[in-house]
Design brief:
The chain is of the alpha/beta class. It is built from four helices and 25 strands. It folds into two domains: about 110 residues, UDP N-Acetylglucosamine Acyltransferase, domain 1, CATH 2.160.10.10; about 60 residues, Udp N-acetylglucosamine O-acyltransferase, C-terminal domain (Udp N-acetylglucosamine O-acyltransferase, Domain 2, Up-down Bundle). The protein is elongated and about 55 Å long.
């Protein structure tokens, strides 16, 4: 079922039992699997039927049961998704969320309203992100993680509640980051997550410049956080498993 205001780009495929409604713009080459529900009214009691939209880029995959709700007046009226993202079965993207490009959402990930997911982030199955939180670029959230603060860029974050387990080294190596860049990030996070008050740690880190582009991204992300950043350290068990 496709609503009268929906616009679908070239080579986009809708399998059976897909519903797309509302003022929804879908780019080219997307694929929607059965029981995807896109552009319906948000699950927000403040919503009063105001005009709001969903915008979706190109070459995204929405697996079975994925839901993407349109925006609200309180959040700017827009839910936006970039390109080349994979949403596995039962993922929920709530109203006014902003999702970048090249992200992966494993099964049953749930985003509350007003969440920002930056490019190349990966969210493990059954994870949840609190409203108004951000997940930084190239971050990896382990399965069943609950983030009530911002998840730092390039980080490995796991647990309920979320804990910081260092740099997402495996993911960064797979994506072609140099050993020098990864080493610089490790050193930056040793300072930021070292137990000092965050303002002092940031000042100490900035004084160590010049920095790589990745470290500058981390500093800007932490400085711009409104909810705080997950930097409380977790630990690893005897066999190397993370233990929140």
């Amino acid at each position: 079922m496709v609503g009268e205001k929906v616009r679908l780009g070239r080579a986009t495929v809708l399998e059976s039992h897909v519903v797309i409604d509302g003022d929804t713009l879908v780019g080219e080459g997307n694929r929607f699997f059965p029981f995807s529900s896109i552009g319906l009214v948000p699950q927000d009691l403040k919503f009063r039927g105001e005009a709001s939209r969903v915008e979706i880029g190109d070459r995204n995959v929405f697996r079975e049961g994925t839901t993407v709700h349109r925006g609200t007046a309180g959040g700017g009226g827009l839910t936006r998704i970039g390109s080349d993202n994979l949403f596995m079965a039962q993922v929920h993207v709530a109203h006014d969320c902003v999702v970048g490009s090249h992200t992966i959402f494993a099964n049953a990930v749930a985003l509350s309203g007003h969440v920002e997911i930056q490019d190349f982030a990966t969210l493990g199955g059954l994870s949840g992100v609190h409203q108004f939180c951000r997940v930084g670029t190239h971050a990896f959230m382990g399965g069943a993680t609950v983030a009530t603060k911002d998840v730092a860029p390039f980080s490995l974050t796991v647990g309920n509640r979320a804990r910081f387990f260092g740099v997402n080294g495996v993911g960064l190596r797979r994506r072609g980051f140099s050993p020098e860049s990864i080493s610089a990030l490790r050193e930056a996070y040793r300072i930021l997550a070292g137990g000092q008050p965050l303002a002092e740690a940031l000042s100490r880190l900035e004084a160590k410049g010049p920095h790589t582009d990745e470290v500058r991204t981390v500093v800007e992300f932490v400085r711009s956080s409104k909810r705080g950043v997950v930097l409380a350290r977790g630990r690893r068990g005897a066999a190397g498993e993370v233990e929140p």
